[in-house]
Amino acid sequence: QVQLQESGPGLVKPSQTLSLTCTVSGGSISNGGYYWSWIRQHPGKGLEWIGYIYYSGTTYYNPSLKSRLTISVDTSKNQFSLRLSSVTAADTAMYYCAKETTGNKRAFDIWGQGTMVTVSS
Amino acid sequence: DIQMTQSPSSLSASVGDRVTITCRASQSISNYLNWYQEKPGTVPKLLLFAASSLQSGVPSRFSGSGSGTDFTLTISSLQPEDFATYYCQQSYSTPRTFGQGTKLEIK
């Protein structure tokens, strides 16, 4: 069974870059058939899709974040990462990585435990 | 972007009740509609995908229907563990978008 685990700093200063990594275990990120996603949830709010990456490196970003966002994959480490630049307090949220199966299912069926990121000086 | 609108935003019900939550898309999304359950302090859990397909391990009291723009999630007989927040989500196109959530509370 595939499992996901986020890692990264819990506190980021305004204007700096938020960097998170998701480590995939129990399966290879290179197998194909999956999009590897980042999703966030502001405190007490709903879910916001940030973007996803295919193992080949193809990415799809939420237009609302695209100018500040980079998602990358490291198949040798079985990891994918998020970098969000020029953060503000509005980027304070719980960040989840998730697996979306391609094809007809197209749902986030596996999620990491999430990591809380606070943007504050 | 495709906007997803859920109704109601909150709902009070009793154990044993039949409950229906609706989700409307701002344009046709075929059957690319998923439902998630979120309990406080826990990770969202996939309940149904492709509008009506039950995710493995999810109790059969959960069901979904719809196609195009209008969808429903039905819980046939509420159990104590079902009190949670439910989200719909479209996977027809990017950006993927979620409904605002429906909080199901105990009456």
Query: Please, how many helices of chain B?
Result: 0
Give the biggest beta sheet of chain A: 7 strands, mixed
Supply the helix-strand structural class of chain B: mainly beta
- Poorly predicted spans of chain A: none
Cα shape of chain B: globular
* Amino-to-carboxy terminus distance of chain B: 36 Å
Number of helices in the DSSP assignment of chain A: 0
Decide which structural class fits the backbone of chain A: mainly beta
Helix-strand sequence of chain B: EEEEEEEEEEE
SSE string of chain A: EEEEEEEEEEE
Feature tags:
heterodimer, A: 121 residues, mainly beta, seven-stranded mixed β-sheet, four-stranded antiparallel β-sheet, B: 107 residues, globular
Can you lay out the helices and strands and say which pair or pack?
The complex is a heterodimer of chains A (121) and B (107).
Chain A: E1 3-7, E2 11-12, E3 18-25, E4 34-41, E5 47-53, E6 59-61, E7 69-74, E8 79-84, E9 93-101, E10 108-111, E11 115-119
Parallel strand pairs in A: 2-11
Antiparallel strand pairs in A: 1-3, 3-8, 4-5, 4-9, 5-6, 7-8, 9-10, 9-11
Chain B: E1 4-7, E2 10-13, E3 19-25, E4 33-38, E5 45-49, E6 53-54, E7 62-67, E8 70-75, E9 85-90, E10 97-98, E11 102-106
Parallel strand pairs in B: 2-11
Antiparallel strand pairs in B: 1-3, 3-8, 4-5, 4-9, 5-6, 7-8, 9-10, 9-11
